Amino acid sequence: MLELKKDLQEIKNIEEKIGKKISDILYNLEVENNNINEVKALKNDIYEKTSKVFTYNLRKLIQLESTQKRLAKKIGVSEDLLSKYKSGDAFPSIETLIYISQIYKISIEKLIEIPLSSSDIEGLECNEQNEIDFFEEKYYVYFLVTNVAMEGAIHEGVFEFYNDKVEFKILSKENVIKAFTGKYNVSGKLIFFNLHSITDGMVYINMIKPNVNKDKYIGGLGMLMLPSDANSKPCTQKILFSRIKLDREFYSKNIRDLLSFTLEGESFGHVKVAQWEDESAYNFIKKLL
């Protein structure tokens, strides 16, 4: 980290020197008469700055990919050559720069002229995570009915994924009674669903990001924010995702236990889905496959 801060300061100093030289060349007649040598010196400074910015950004990308080996593989160069890039002993070809800019969706100008900020890296990380295909095309979901007349019953719905789009349908006897569409985003260790319906309003769901080392997502718990009582009251509850359709009557107790909050007379400032709860739901679904 200290080395990166030192690099940033050096880049800033060179940038200031380049700015001053360009001003001298443009506005100083004496310098203009000796223009060739001055421009050569300026070009050397520009190359030094470009090389340092690229090296700085390369180190940031190595941090993003966790290891130098992974980055080398991703951009199609040997580890030895990447080490030379990193040390400043070599500079990549234009086609390599274009390839890096395209796979990370950043401009070449930003890659070689502007040091990547922490927010830039977070954006790149988010883009990469969103590209990871966690889900099958369809999941069944279960959550408790909150309307007073039917409180305690178990709702069934389906989640369907179409590339980056999501559709959430709430069912009653196989008929769709509400439908919401939208997208999902990955941030850190969580996945967020923002869904809406012209007639039924908004739905928000967040869940723990599945372990990418496993095959496609099998099932687990999320937190559902869906208004209750004809969209008149705010409501938050758990929602169970399952790759397979569950018999709500046969597994009623199992599903209720997973979806219920047990307070035992305690006072809480918040409720959340714990890792062990999500794993319990996963294990329950896994046994049924």
Automatic annotation (TrEMBL):
Coiled-coil segments: none
Top-level division of the source organism's lineage: Bacteria
PROSITE patterns per the UniProt record, alphabetical: HTH_CROC1
Domain HTH cro/C1-type per the UniProt entry, residue ranges: 67-111
CDD domains recorded: HTH_XRE
Any GO MF annotation of the entry: DNA binding
Pfam family, one: HTH_3
Protein name (record): Helix-turn-helix domain protein
Species annotation: Clostridium cellulovorans (strain ATCC 35296 / DSM 3052 / OCM 3 / 743B)
